[in-house]
Amino acid sequence: MLDALTIAEVQALRMSLHDFASRQSDQVVKICCCAVDLDLARIVGRQDDQTLRELAASVEQLAKAVQTARTADQGADSTPASRDPLPFEWFSLDPQNVSSVG
């Protein structure tokens, strides 16, 4: 079980993720945000290897979806888009290393 401080940090990350998702126009990015949020909610109650692998996979899918959406946005608009940081960047999480948590 996670300690109270870690749970609070996960909940803060979830709130940041909700805010990030609400500002997105790409539906795939929004869906990936929901998947990461669901996995973060599950990690609070149960921290096993399977849940951690699923969280790592959903974070990786979100990173790819955002990169694809940004590439498409830049192709459609000649002006450089402002780069909205990904929620896991705010917490210095590397999607490749999420499975090592715990």
Task: Write a concise keyword list for the protein shown above.
single chain, mainly alpha, 69% helix
Explain this structure to me?
This protein is mainly alpha-helical and about 100 residues long. It has one domain. Helices cover about 70% and strands about 0% of the residues. It has 4 helices and no strands. Helix 1 packs antiparallel against helix 2 and helix 2 runs antiparallel to helix 3. The radius of gyration is 14 Å and the shape is elongated. The protein starts with a helix and ends in a 12-residue tail after the last helix. The mean pLDDT is about 80.
Order of SSEs = HHHH
**Domains (count):** 1
How large, in whole angstroms, is the Cα Rg? 14 Å
The major pleated sheet works out as:
none
Q: How many beta-strand runs?
A: 0
Query: What gross morphology would you assign?
Result: elongated
Question: Outline of this structure?
Answer:
The protein is an all-alpha fold and 102 residues long. 69% of the residues lie in helices and 0% in strands.
Write the layout of secondary structure elements.
Layout: H1 4-22, H2 27-45, H3 49-76, H4 87-90
